[in-house]
Amino acid sequence: MINIRNATESDLDAVCSMENEWMPSPWSRQGFESELSNSFSHFLVAENENGIAGYAVAWRVAGELQLNRILIHASQRRRGIGRALLENLARRLTPSPHSRILIEVRSKNLEARSFYRAAGFVETGRRRRYYGGDDAMLMELKIK
Ligand SMILES: CC(C)(COP(=O)(O)OP(=O)(O)OC[C@H]1O[C@@H](n2cnc3c(N)ncnc32)[C@H](O)[C@@H]1OP(=O)(O)O)[C@@H](O)C(=O)NCCC(=O)NCCS
Questions:
Q1: How far apart, in Å, are the Cα atoms of 70 and each of 24, 96, 128, 144?
Q2: Which CATH number belongs to the domain containing residue 85 in this structure?
């Protein structure tokens, strides 16, 4: 059973340890701490019987959400947890013709691109060499 809730200070050990293990350019603990008090940030964790299974950080800017982080523990992937985090974020937006979730994803991160496509995101552009040796794909999901 998966429970999605707002992150708290006591989740930061688990979040930072996953971040350091799997993200190529990990955010610092201080970075996550500031997200806890940031008024336009949605910092969510997904919890199950094994503890923190994943997390997401998105910034609300006008009617849009910029998704900055989403990560699921490697042992917990392909169980719908990433999708559940996305759906929770989408419900935080008021549906309108302008509501959308935006992301930038490394072009070589084919797993994430498949994940976003499966959730209904479409590719809207590419920023060449945005990540040094890799391009950023811009993707968006409209929330109508
Ligand atoms: C991308 C990520 C968040 C997906 O999380 P997840 O919980 O495993 O995804 P879900 O189980 O909700 O997947 C939903 C659907 O997305 C697609 N999908 C997810 N992972 C996929 C993969 N590795 N390959 C192909 N399709 C995939 C599938 O259609 C899947 O449905 P299915 O399992 O019924 O086939 C996870 O792989 C992850 O944490 N990756 C490392 C961090 C990362 O790259 N984050 C994104 C940075 S932009």
A1: 13, 24, 22, 22
A2: 3.40.630.30
Q: Do 26 and 37 form a contact (C-beta atoms < 8 A)?
A: no
Supply the pTM of this predicted model: 0.97
CA–CA distance, 36 with 4 (Å, rounded to integer): 15
Give me the domain span that covers residue 34.
3-142
pLDDT, one tens digit per residue, over 84-138 is 999 999 999 988 988 999 999 999 999 999 999 999 999 999 999 999 999 999 9
With a Cβ cut-off of 6 Å, ligand 1 is lined by 22, 70-72, 77-83, 103, 105, 109, 111-112, 114-115, 118
Task: Give CA 121 to chain center in angstroms.
Answer: 13
Domain tally, the chain? 1
Q: How far apart are CA 140 and CA 144, in angstroms?
A: 13
Among 78, 121, 138, name the best residue to mutate to test ligand 1's pocket (greatest count of ligand atoms within 8 A of Cβ).
Answer: 78
